[in-house]
Amino acid sequence: VQLQASGGGLVQAGGSLRLSCATSERTNNRYGIAWFRQAPGKEREFVTAFSRTGGYTYYAESVKGRFTISRDNAKNTVFLQMNTLKPEDTAVYYCAAGPVITSSTRNWRAYTYWGQGTLVTVSS
Question: What is the b/e burial string over 21-48, where b = at least 16 CB atoms within 10 angstroms of the residue's CB?
Answer without folding.
Answer: bbbeeebbebbbbbbbbeeeeeebbbbb
